[in-house]
UniProtKB/TrEMBL annotation:
Domain FAD-binding PCMH-type: 6-184
Record-linked PROSITE patterns: FAD_PCMH
Classification via PANTHER family: 24-DEHYDROCHOLESTEROL REDUCTASE (PTHR10801), DELTA(24)-STEROL REDUCTASE (PTHR10801:SF0)
Name of the protein in its database record: Delta(24)-sterol reductase
Coiled-coil regions, chain positions: none
Keywords from the UniProt entry: FAD, Flavoprotein, Membrane, Oxidoreductase, Transmembrane, Transmembrane helix
GO molecular function (one): Delta24-sterol reductase activity
Lineage, highest ranks first: Bacteria, Bacillati, Actinomycetota, Actinomycetes, Mycobacteriales
Any single Gene Ontology cellular-component annotation: membrane
Organism (species): Nocardia terpenica
Amino acid sequence: MSLLGKAGRAPAAHESGFAAHRAGVDRLLASYRAIPRDANVRLAKKTSNLFRARARSDAPGLDVSGLTRVIAVDPQARTADVAGMTTYEDLVAATLPYGLAPLVVPQLKTITLGGAVTGLGIESTSFRSGLPHESVLEIDVLTGAGEIVTATPDGEHADLFRGFPNSYGTLGYSTRLKIELETVQPYVALRHVRFHDLRELESVMARIVTDRSYDGEPVDYLDGVVFTSDESYLVLGRQTDEPGPVSDYTGMDIYYRSIQHDSPRPKRDRLTIHDYLWRWDTDWFWCSRAFGTQNPRIRRLWPKQYRRSSFYWKLIALDHRYDIGDKLEARKGNPPRERVVQDIEVPIERTAEFLEWFLAEIPIEPLWLCPLRLRGNGEGPTAPDPSRPWPLYPLEPDRTYVNVGFWSAVPTVPGQRQGAANRAIETRVSELDGHKSLYSDAYYSEDEFARLYGGDVYPELKKRYDPDHRLLDLYSKAVQRK
């Protein structure tokens, strides 16, 4: 089976894509100029994959309506030019017909390429391909000063290129990104390997990251799920073009439940590459259970087009706006619940230690695991140089980390300060030499935040690219929720 339609690039379509993109940039610049000088610049965007609350603003926002599509795919060079607000769903739809995909495809369809670069993203290729920003070749950025600059690894704006990841739109917004693509096969063969001991899981995961194989078979994709301290799994994916039956988890069957088994041997499964990339989106990992969607009677009646993360997010937004969940808990005589929606990273050798602590202290399960390494020197045009790390999320080159994701809520305890569970997690992660992503609630002091996320580098970038502070600064946006 071939994923490739006609591999040639149509010049007319190529030029048309860039012309439409230029028109979108013109609208963006016009909207920037229309924002009052004393107002913060924000995106005029109706949806988001962020879980941080933020202050409402009546000021007009940036018009990004013309920056939502793939501009051009070059199958020979294996690159794509992509507008910053393009979703990964649309990006993958444009590249798969050529047998290509981005090096890292975050798990949810409506994450945008620009969002994954400025806010970080991760997936099961991250143990070999790093994070999304590491496959970026160049970025056009609308800075806080209202200028469009092109940032490259070695050009005039190399400091912005390095500082843009994890800046969350506080230095500017990407209007175009040129990214590397990789060849993919039509299918992914899966092995679900069960563990009864978290220390053993940690050890095996470390070996797979190093060897890129397990039990004699190559491993192209690697993530995992922890259900309890004695039931955890690594999910190993191998690209293949071998024809055969495939599973479908967009209907009645639920992907994360398919992972579980009692056999000492790995459980095997197969998906198309398309369904593998979006395996987590149908049920938002496992979070769809909060809406009853995993109940077979409800699932049968739930329209298939609404079994996707973007629709569940709308339900969450309604809950945040009207405090529906807390009101229902109050009717039962229960206290409000604290939202604990986080992704953290710890060094792989501290993974079991963190998991044991978390399972004992925080009543949330399952947990998602995803190992990652920055791309090694020489493994790409933007591979990290130890003397020039990614300063706003300073992971160490040549060191393996494990992302742990947990997305739920826990009961509050009367007398405890706001965010008690999240604060405890932040403290433990820092003790284990880790970081956490900033898409959700954070409670760091300004000094600790600066130590973890940019130090003296960020103020210098802010001074150069947003001298009048038209954009919020990172601490205000991530912690103070302005």
